[in-house]
Design a protein that fits this description.
15 helices; Nucleotidyltransferase, domain 5; alpha/beta; 6-stranded mixed beta sheet; 2 domains
């Protein structure tokens, strides 16, 4: 069985093709700058990368272009699109509809209801889903919602302190996101530790960031709330924010509520903290090293919020067996990992600078000379620290197979 997994951004479409008989990746590719005069299409099969420039008007056309890449007589790996058993989407927010769903009108309607909550994610996904439903009607389409993994969080940790009547009528709760990534980290870390009941803190740090507390492969707490704009500061999204500041900001800027919310979702986060310099941690680290105070402030706020959320995850789990860094920043920024772990040895978090600086992409990075917590009892071991590259697409592929199997 071959499954195509789609991962969409506002102007991008990325995919991976898996042979689920052995979970082997057959191809990866995508389209960048969708909607521009010229878009860049790329595909990588057996280590050979092919690129081309062509106009791609929307995400639906992008999906068609990628299927053409996979079935190209000279460079493709499929004889025809009929070899694809299903297409799985790493969907973001379905509100009243969560879990893993075969896509139909009711699923699309539920996603549309949440467009105002996930404006950068839901519309492009829906456009691609509707286009494929028309052009590839024989291929089952599956939405694996990011919120699914966090359904196991206890009710007390899901609720906002709003009137019960409103909470009962509307899908207002802490949904959590990056579910496929956190699910993979929980599974892979339990495998690395040889402990299916492992208490794992998963730090997915990237352009969009969140932290999840995982016990026995299930989420028990997460840093994100109702929308993907919440939790930690993101590259250009605000993160947690007091709504009572909105009237003051509206008066100062002259913006209406809708425009101000757009500003907080596109010009805030690390980009806003750095004075508009960049929302990319790599740029901020370089600027901070050159003495840019605003870039350093952006990094400091980001790290401070990670550590604040880290403390709450430790409490939710009653300690941890492992803490795992993943995502573009988590996997690649030596500086951020060091700053997050600095001075936490009495909590059982002792980073090894040598291991942190270099090694395999997947590696353990805690200090082997400090196996036990300083001053602790003989049974108090340090938390294992790991870097584990995430594989969201593999999780979605597995979920897709299970969904069409039903």
């Amino acid at each position: 069985m071959k499954v195509l997994v789609a991962n969409l951004g506002s102007t991008s479409f990325k995919y991976r093709l898996f042979d689920m008989a052995d979970e082997r990746q057959l191809a990866r590719g995508g389209v960048e700058r969708i909607g521009a005069a010229v878009s860049r299409c790329f595909v990588e099969i057996n280590g050979l990368r092919t690129e081309s420039d062509q106009p791609v008007a929307n995400h639906g056309v992008a999906v068609d272009a990628c299927i053409q890449q996979l079935t190209d007589p000279q460079t493709g790996c499929l004889k025809s699109a009929s070899e694809i058993s299903a297409i799985g989407f790493k969907a973001v927010h379905g509100g009243r509809v969560s879990g893993v769903q075969v896509i139909d009108d009711s699923v699309l309607d539920a996603m549309e209801e949440m467009n105002s909550v996930a404006p950068a994610h839901n519309p492009p996904y829906m456009a691609a889903m509707r286009q494929l439903a028309k052009t590839s009607s024989k291929i089952p389409l599956v939405a694996a919602f990011e919120t699914d993994f966090h359904q196991s969080i206890p009710e007390a940790s899901k609720r906002y302190a709003i009137p019960d009547e409103i909470a009962s009528a509307l899908p207002i709760r802490k949904w959590g996101f990056h579910g496929a990534s956190h699910r993979y980290i929980g599974w892979r870390t339990a495998e690395l530790l040889g402990n299916p009941d492992a208490r794992v803190i998963s730090l997915h740090l990237g352009g969009s960031s969140s932290i999840s507390a995982i016990r026995g492969g299930k989420s028990v707490a997460t840093s994100m709330g109702m929308s993907p704009q919440t939790g930690l500061p993101h590259n250009n999204r605000v993160g947690d924010f007091d709504p009572y500041a909105l009237p003051l900001m509206m008066k100062h800027t002259g913006l209406g509520l809708e425009d101000l919310l757009k500003l907080l979702a596109t010009e805030a986060g690390l980009l806003g903290l750095s004075g508009g310099l960049s929302g990319d941690v790599r740029d901020l680290e370089s600027a901070a090293a050159a003495g840019n105070a605003k870039a350093q402030l952006a990094i400091d706020v980001f790290v401070s919020e990670i550590r604040r959320q880290l403390g709450s995850m430790l409490v939710a789990l009653g300690g941890a067996d492992a803490m795992v860094f993943t995502g573009g920043i988590g996997e690649n920024s030596t500086t951020i990992r060091h700053a997050v772990c600095h001075g936490l040895s009495e909590l059982g978090i002792s980073l090894c600078n040598t291991r942190n600086a270099s090694g395999d992409k997947e590696r353990r990075i805690d200090d082997p000379s400090k196996d036990r917590i300083s001053g602790g009892s003989a049974n108090q071991r340090n938390i294992q620290l790991w870097i584990v590259p995430t594989n969201e697409e593999l999780i979605v592929a597995r979920q897709t197979v299970a969904a069409i199997g039903k």
